[in-house]
């Protein structure tokens, strides 16, 4: 009898789910208006604030990270408002599309895919806005499509200095992977999704809102109903939800946040950094080129350029032989890169396994020597515990 397939997710989302969390998902649902569920909402909200390093409201929405980002935009802006959008990958591109869809006037700051956004570009445009017409700056912190992390700390400094503009930040693959100190950096709106660093299946998204963001919401005239955040804030006062939430995903969220608190923020961030260094340095040892700027590698995902190898065929070989799923390139990068996720519930063994699988596949194609394969594991191990 054949061994049942055991697929290992080494992609930047959905990420692996811990056994404890899977067990929590399997519980029988409870009433979402019951005291038991209200108690659960209270605990998870407190832990979400801990993860975001904030005293601001952190709201939970049944929907993807895109729902949270759209909510941040439509609850604080009005048709015709002028906004800056940073675009250096697929998700920055998405926020440009969303902003335009809602009739916002977009000033686009872009960078080549694989390169970080330049904070000086934001500084220049914001400083030139003497009339304070720019209402918000929208960008992605960790650009999942390219493996680049943007310098949010510096960009947020320039936004704060403007005084008027809100920061609306996609932190979908940075929350839970690296420090995003919402209060320290005075970030107004931060969106994230459950299937990433939270270590639970897709279906929930989270959005932190500063007092400045809530004040802006009083003047917003964009249409909203399900994503009207005032409804969520009002319900949260009684530890409730305005609409039926994904009850079992909240069970899972409670369990995953407990695990994260037990590990501790600094340990979580250090683990992700170790895995980033292990994968990126092993890739270089295997004569593979990093797609992202090496000074701005995301702690969540490493993008690798394959040059004369078809990346889609390479991914297929690894999945078929080793039951390890890697992510591919998006849009014009399809077939040009593959991406190794090291986000959420990933340990050192997973990192060694994926590097071994990549090495073995390169050996099969006569792209490296046995010595290089061994050296890659040695290099990776230096960054692991």
Notes on the structure:
There is one protein chain. This protein is of the alpha/beta class. The chain folds into two domains: 8-14 and 264-381, Alpha-Beta Complex (Aspartate Aminotransferase, domain 1), CATH 3.90.1150; 19-262, Aspartate Aminotransferase, domain 2, CATH 3.40.640. Helix content is 42%, strand content 17%. It is built from 13 helices and 14 strands. The protein has helices at residues 19-25, 35-52, 65-74, 90-101, 119-128, 152-162, 211-217, 229-236, 247-263, 265-285, 311-322, 348-364, 370-381; strands at 8-10, 57-62, 82-87, 105-110, 134-140, 142-143, 148-149, 166-170, 189-193, 204-209, 289-290, 301-305, 324-328, 337-341. The chain has a seven-stranded mixed β-sheet, sandwiched between helices. Helix 12 (348-364) packs antiparallel against helix 13 (370-381).
CATH architecture of the largest domain: 3-Layer(aba) Sandwich
Strand tally is 14
SS strand fraction: 15-25%
Oligomer: single chain
What is the CATH topology of the largest domain? Answer: Aspartate Aminotransferase, domain 2
Instruction: Look at the structure and give the CATH class of the largest domain.
Output: Alpha Beta
Cα gyration radius (Å): 21 Å
Order of helices and strands: EHHEHEHEHEEEHEEEHHHHEEHEEHH
Distance linking N and C termini: 37 Å
Provide a count of the helices: 13
* Structural domains: how many: 2
Q: Give the overall pLDDT as a whole number.
A: 97
- Principal-axis shape equals globular
Structural class: alpha/beta
Keywords, please?
42% helix, Aspartate Aminotransferase, domain 2, alpha/beta, 385 residues, Aspartate Aminotransferase, domain 1, 13 helices, globular
